[in-house]
């Protein structure tokens, strides 16, 4: 039975690989160069924007849970950040979550989202929020099935030369 535990420095390469894969997929229509640039920049983005380096998950008001299988196998992660909406209400944001490709379809994504929900309840937070790429059908199906509604959309148009 997989267990959830806080992030430890040994998790960094696994976290980075899965999070980068998610970020690259979220680019949607993109060039090889754009994808290569994202890969190159991602560790810096984590460090500069979130204070997250291999040694330390230093994101303010945030927690990073790691889903671990037998023999310490890295199965996935759940990054939660506490925020406030413009009206001042507390929100628990799922900043990122993911399950390694080989372990998908076994209910682990659902398990991670249940953890987000229980964490919100423990903190007395009523709303959970997340962003998901329009092309991520699997994740959108999961969130919809768990009762999440779309509250805003990001729209983008790529201008042709
Ligand atoms: C999205 C993700 C976390 C789902 O994890 P998972 O462990 O495969 O999901 P589960 O096995 O718990 O499935 C939960 C639900 O997801 C949906 N789902 C799962 N596989 C699916 C598929 N192939 N197609 C469509 N929906 C699917 C279903 O609603 C499923 O519920 P069901 O099993 O009752 O039918 C996983 O695909 C993933 O890590 N993707 C890459 C990272 C990512 O996209 N993260 C989200 C960023 S916002």
Hetero groups in this structure are:
coenzyme A
Number of strands: 5
User: What distance lies between the first and last C-alpha atoms, to the nearest angstrom?
Assistant: 52 Å
Q: What is the chain-wise order of helices and strands? A: EHHEEEHEH
Helix/strand-derived category reads alpha+beta
CATH architectural grouping:
3-Layer(aba) Sandwich
Do you know the CATH topology? Aminopeptidase
Overall number of structural domains: 1
Measured on Cα atoms, how large is the radius of gyration? Answer: 16 Å
Taking pLDDT < 50 over at least 5 consecutive residues as the criterion, the unreliable ranges are none
What's the overall geometry?
globular
CATH superfamily: Gcn5-related N-acetyltransferase (GNAT)
Work out the strand percent.
15-25%
- The biggest beta sheet, please? 5 strands, mixed
Adjacency order of strands in the biggest sheet = 1-2-3-4-5
Output mean pLDDT.
96
What does this structure look like?
The protein has 161 residues and is α+β, with helices and mostly antiparallel strands. It has one domain (3-145): 3-Layer(aba) Sandwich (Aminopeptidase). The chain is built from four helices and five strands, in the order E-H-H-E-E-E-H-E-H. Helix 3 links the parallel strand 4 and strand 5. It is globular and about 50 Å long. The structure holds coenzyme A. Residues 22, 97-99, 104-110, 130, 132, 136-139, 141-142, 145 line the site of coenzyme A.
SSE blueprint and pairings:
Blueprint: E1 3-6, H1 12-26, H2 32-50, E2 62-68, E3 74-84, E4 90-99, H3 108-123, E5 127-130, H4 137-145
Parallel strand pairs: 4-5
Antiparallel strand pairs: 1-2, 2-3, 3-4
Helix pairs in contact: 1-2
Bound molecules: coenzyme A (COA).
Coenzyme A binds next to strand 4, helix 3 and helix 4.
């Amino acid at each position: 039975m997989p267990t959830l535990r806080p992030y430890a420095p040994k998790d960094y390469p696994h976290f980075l690989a899965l999070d980068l894969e998610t970020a690259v997929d979220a680019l949607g229509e993109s060039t090889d160069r754009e994808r290569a640039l994202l890969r190159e920049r991602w560790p810096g983005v984590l460090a500069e924007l979130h204070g997250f380096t291999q040694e330390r998950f230093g994101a303010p008001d945030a927690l990073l849970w790691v889903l671990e299988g037998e023999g310490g196998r890295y199965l996935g992660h759940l990054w939660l950040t506490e925020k406030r909406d413009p009206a001042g209400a507390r929100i628990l944001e799922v900043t990122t979550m993911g399950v390694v490709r080989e372990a998908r379809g076994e209910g682990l994504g659902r398990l991670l989202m249940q953890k987000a929900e229980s964490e919100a309840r423990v903190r007395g937070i009523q709303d959970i929020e997340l962003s998901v790429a329009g092309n991520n059908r699997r994740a959108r199906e999961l969130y919809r099935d768990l009762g999440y509604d779309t509250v805003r959309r990001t729209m983008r148009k790529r201008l042709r030369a």
